[in-house]
Specification:
This protein is an alpha/beta fold. The chain is 26% helix and 29% strand. The protein has 2 domains: 195 residues, FAD/NAD(P)-binding domain; 119 residues, FAD/NAD(P)-binding domain, CATH 3.50.50.60. It is built from 8 helices and 19 strands. Strand 12 and strand 13 form a beta hairpin.
């Protein structure tokens, strides 16, 4: 079913970035649709931190408040998934419009399209790890460090970048062990070793076989049998790791947006407002980069929403000018 009336803006993704963009657009009296698949990246977390005035709020409550706020300004929100999008030939403002296909069967038209689909965290395949993610298996000390301060802490290395993670974690705990896991001892530089020693981090070579849970609490990790100290148990109450970031960039790829390769995946090339290389196509939040915390994602969405309103206004004025 194709809607001929269409929207001025369709926002794909109902997380912090998407809702923030939609809030600005709704307050700008733009007919806006948010399509939300209901798969927020931070769903496993019981709380979010570091967002001024929202510190400690649960992600679910944060999104519920955001949905209520955009509804006050007439923004529509549907629980659905965008499965395809194509650019239209006609110039409908900002360089062309889009036809957006939803999994539920609707096809809607829009002048501008915001991709705020975020990314997925792909965890190392260590038994028991995924079940604890967001509880006592963590990835961001700024998000969880205060709540887990002074606890026996481990860092599961997935690359040499995990050295940096282990060093950062020492700001919150002085009992830190770096389990090299997927990193060979020879990959650590002399500077890495000096810094780890200065920070008091114990380096544990070998592969981790599994995490140990007792009474629904992480109690430690066990090394693989063939590793140095194979089969040994290391008591830990918190374990940090760096998941592999998998950007949800299918829609951007379909529409021909230029991408840039980073150590954390492929992300669109955007200007300071969030506009991609495709006219009328915007990216915000973790769809635009790996390191966007909730507060940063909301800021990106706000900036994109304001820029889109200006783009639409100027396009309409240019079209109607004598």
């Amino acid at each position: 079913m194709t809607e001929n009336t269409g929207y001025e803006v369709v926002v794909v993704g109902g997380g912090a970035a998407g809702l923030s963009a939609a809030l600005v657009l709704g307050r700008s009296r733009r007919r806006t649709l948010v399509v939300d698949a209901g798969e927020p990246r931070n769903a496993p977390s019981a709380h979010m931190q570091g967002y001024l005035s929202r510190d400690g709020m649960s992600p679910a409550e944060f999104l519920a408040v955001g949905r209520r706020e955009i509804a006050r300004y007439g923004v529509e929100l549907v629980r659905d998934r965008v499965v395809d999008a194509t650019r239209e030939d006609a110039d409908r403002g900002g360089g062309g419009g889009f036809s957006v296909v939803l999994a539920g069967g609707r096809t809607v038209r829009t002048r501008q399209l915001v991709v705020a689909t975020g990314l997925e965290d792909e965890l190392p395949p260590v038994p028991g790890l995924a079940e604890r993610f967001g509880r006592d298996v963590l990835h961001c000390p700024y998000c969880h460090g205060w709540e887990s301060r002074d606890l026996p802490t481990g860092v599961l290395a997935t690359s040499v970048l995990s050295v940096h993670q282990a060093l950062m974690v020492t700001q919150w705990s002085k009992d830190v062990r770096l389990f090299l896991h997927e990193v060979g001892e020879s990959e650590l530089t002399d500077q890495d070793l000096r810094r780890l020693a200065a920070a008091g981090v114990t380096v544990v070579p070998g592969e981790v076989a599994d995490v140990v849970v007792t009474d629904d609490r992480l109690t430690g990790v066990r090394l693989a049998g063939g590793a140095p100290g194979g089969g040994s148990f290391h008591a830990r109450e918190v374990l940090y790791t760096a998941p592999r970031a998998v950007p949800r960039n299918d829609l951007l790829v379909r529409l021909g947006a230029e991408l840039r390769e980073t150590p954390f995946g492929s992300y669109p090339v955007i200007d300071e407002r969030g506009l991609t290389s495709v006219p009328g196509l915007w990216a915000a939040g973790n769809a635009s980069g790996f390191a966007e915390q909730v507060v940063n994602a909301a800021s990106r969405g706000y900036r994109a929403g304001a820029a889109i309103n200006a783009e639409l206004l100027m396009a309409d004025l240019d079209e109607s000018a004598p």
